[in-house]
Every structure is written in structure tokens, then in C-alpha cells.
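Priority: medium. Attachment 1 of 2:
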């Protein structure tokens, strides 16, 4: 298991890389749409050159780091890699997205090199790159939302949460308690064990 300080550090890097990947994919999509819609050869050429650089030097490294840190934090915490379906889904979809990205990037390089050699008239006819970044962005946003909804760490433990001792807890409807129970994660089980004693975790 990762010591708490390492878990925090890994989680910070994980969030920076995975959410940064989403931002870089959005920037790539803007370039791809601009190249698709524009009739100006210079703009289309510039967009393809920028897509190639952004793809290889920002998107691919961030994607690799998001996957690597995700695996480390899954294996290094009670979440595990195969214990919870949401971690498996994140792992599968992220791996799939990364493979598609790596298979797609050589064609981006080829188009960027071609765009650098042709005149403005021909460059204007190149078109853009919308499908790959568009679908990729949807997949990444889905993973991010899934991960945020399915995790529950100590930051989420507020006095109103069910881990607080019953006497200190404001009155809640049974529905709220049930939903909160479902969200519970390894950290909450830890604090339950220490605050109220003897509560079993998911493992
Ligand atoms: C694009 C891909 C990914 C995105 C956008 C993403 C996003 C996030 C975010 C925002 C969190 C923080 C949730 C919170 O604390 O509120 C998180 C946590 C987490 N992610 Fe990911 N993630 C991705 C890929 C992965 C992968 C591939 C794995 C596992 C193989 C993974 C496993 C985890 C785990 C286990 C946590 C909880 C860590 C903890 O409680 O200390 N993630 N992820």
C-alpha cells in the first residue's frame, strides 16, 4: 500500500495529467475543427503543424502518465485494479484511448509533413481532424466524471456525512444516508474504523 504522503502525491500527479489530457485534447479539437472549416491554406497548414506538436509532445505524454499514475494509485490503495468496476472501466477505456491515439498519431505526422510542402491552395483542401479528438474527448470526460463520482476520500467527510458519530450528526433523510453509503470509499472506511470503531471496509 502507498503511504499517505505518496498517495496524495500520486493522486495530485494523476489529476494534473488526466485532466490536463482533457484540456490538451480540447485544444487539439479546436485546431482540427478550424482546419476542417477554413478555406485559408495558411491556417490549415498551421493547424496541422500545431496538431502534430501538441499530439506528440503534450497529449501522448499526458495520456501515458494518466494511465501509469492511475494504475499505481489503484494498485497502491484499497481500491485495487480489479476490485471495483469503475476502476476497471477507467483502466480499459484509458488503455483503449491511448492505443487509438498512438495508432492515429503517425497519420497526423504524415499530414503535417505533407501540409508543410504544398502550396496554400492545396493546403486549403486538406480538411481537418474532428472525429478522433471529438470521440476521444467524450471518452475522457466520461472517465473523469466516473472517477469523481465513484471516489470518496477524507476531503468529502463533512460533519453531515454518516461517518460522523450519530449524536453529532444533523438529522438526515434515509435517502441521503443510503446515497452516501453507496459513495463510501476506502478512506471513509478508514476514518469510520478510527472514529466509531469496528466497521468493515470493502476489503
Ligand atoms: C483519462 C483518464 C482518467 C481521468 C480523467 C481520471 C480522473 C480522475 C480524477 C479527477 C480523480 C480524483 C477523484 C476524486 O478524488 O475526487 C481520479 C481518481 C482515481 N483514479 Fe483516475 N482518471 C483517469 C484514469 C484512471 C485510470 C486508468 C485508473 C486506474 C487504472 C484510475 C484510477 C483512479 C483511482 C483508483 C482514483 C482514486 C484515488 C484515491 O482515492 O486515492 N484513473 N481519477
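Attachment 2 of 2:
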Amino acid at each position: 500500500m502507498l503511504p499517505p504522503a505518496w498517495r496524495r502525491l500520486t493522486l495530485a500527479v494523476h489529476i494534473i495529467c488526466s485532466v490536463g489530457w482533457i484540456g490538451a485534447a480540447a485544444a487539439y479539437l479546436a485546431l482540427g475543427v478550424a482546419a476542417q472549416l477554413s478555406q485559408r491554406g495558411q491556417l490549415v497548414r498551421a493547424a496541422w503543424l500545431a496538431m502534430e506538436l501538441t499530439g506528440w509532445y503534450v497529449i501522448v505524454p499526458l495520456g501515458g502518465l494518466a494511465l501509469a499514475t492511475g494504475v499505481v494509485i489503484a494498485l497502491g490503495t484499497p481500491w485495487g485494479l480489479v476490485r471495483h468496476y469503475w476502476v476497471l472501466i477507467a483502466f480499459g477505456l484509458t488503455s483503449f484511448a491511448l492505443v487509438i491515439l498512438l495508432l492515429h498519431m503517425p497519420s497526423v505526422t504524415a499530414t503535417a509533413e505533407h501540409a508543410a510542402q504544398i502550396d496554400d491552395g492545396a493546403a486549403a483542401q486538406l480538411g481537418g481532424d474532428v472525429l478522433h479528438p471529438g470521440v476521444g474527448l467524450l471518452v475522457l470526460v466520461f472517465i473523469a466524471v466516473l472517477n469523481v463520482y465513484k471516489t470518496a476520500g477524507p476531503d468529502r467527510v463533512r460533519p453531515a456525512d454518516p461517518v460522523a458519530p450519530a449524536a453529532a450528526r444533523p438529522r438526515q433523510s434515509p435517502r441521503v444516508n443510503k446515497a452516501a453509503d453507496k459513495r463510501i470509499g476506502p478512506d471513509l472506511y478508514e476514518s469510520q474504523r478510527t472514529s466509531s470503531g469496528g466497521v468493515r471496509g470493502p476489503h
